Structure formats: structure tokens, C-alpha cells
């Protein structure tokens, strides 16, 4: 689904529904980051961040949790960022959109817990992803200097936490945000 294309989300959800109505887990992971200092953030960039990093995920979660309610529950994991919690210069739009995901996580979890649906978030730090590989070398080093473990995280380390949150082993965990950041 391309969150910037009108109708893409509803078409994609229709396709999912045609394949299966038994949805056990949803992981909202799509996102963009276009860095700009606060006075340089354009309204268009801010809207794009909200559309891709927040609105699309909320639409998908609304739809798929309705299916989960019909089949006895499930788990939703939203991928946010430590930037949503701590902030980071040059990431106003990104941080605001990811902070919105944390608020949505809490609201969804409060409203859906009684329906057997758990909703949590993860807040990765500096992870070896395409997005972070494009980061300016000096900016990346400044971030790494803040990581107590002294290294970049691996995508598998984030994935294993998400897998745990989706599993029965996390059956009493909802409304939480787990930092995966090597202690930033």
C-alpha cells in the first residue's frame, strides 16, 4: 500500500480481506524521515510525515482490529522511534508523527483490551536500516556517541522484540512502548 495514493489503503485492505479474515497480528512499520531544522520544515513535508507515519497506520489498525474482534483478538505492534520520546534536532516532522503513534498505541490499547486485542509499540534507536544508512556520517556518529552499548542495532534485534510482543508469551502486555536502543 502506498499511503500517499488515495484509495491505496482501502484497496490493499480489501485484498487482505479476500485472502483471510483471520488476522492474528499487525505490525505497522512503514515510515519516512525527511530531516530539516524547525524553520525549514515545509507544510508539505509535515503533512507527508503525518500521512505516511501516522494516518495510514491508524486506518489499517482500525480496519484490521475490527476483523480481530470477530475472531477473538490479536496483537498490534506500532514501530515508533526514540525520537518520539527524546526528540532529535532536525526531526520535528518525523518525531511528531512517531509521537502520534505512541499516543495512538495507548488509546487503541485502552479501547481494545477488553476485546482481546493487545496494542504495543517499539521505539528503536539507531538501527542498521536503509533510512539510517542514508544519514550524514557526522550525524550518525553523534547518535552513536549517545548509545551506551557503542554500536548500531540490528534489524533482527528489533524483529525479535516485535515477534515476542505478537506472541502468547506477551499475553499480559498492552499499551506499552519498549525502547530498543542500546541505552541511548
Short description:
Helices cover 49% and strands 12% of the residues.
Strand line-up of the largest beta sheet: 1-2-3-4
Distance between the termini: 32 Å
The string of secondary-structure elements, in order, is: HEHEHHEHHHE
Task: Compute the number of helices.
Answer: 7
Give Rg in angstroms.
17 Å
How does CATH name the architecture? 3-Layer(aba) Sandwich
CATH class membership:
Alpha Beta
Give unreliable regions as ranges: none
Any overview of this molecule?
The chain has 184 residues and is α/β, with parallel strands linked by helices. Helix content is 49%, strand content 12%. The chain contains seven helices and four strands, in the order αβαβααβαααβ.
Topology:
Elements lengths: L7 H12 L5 E4 L14 H28 L3 E6 L2 H5 L5 H21 L4 E8 L5 H4 L3 H9 L9 H12 L10 E4 L4
Parallel strand pairs: 1-2, 2-3, 3-4
Helix pairs in contact: 2-4
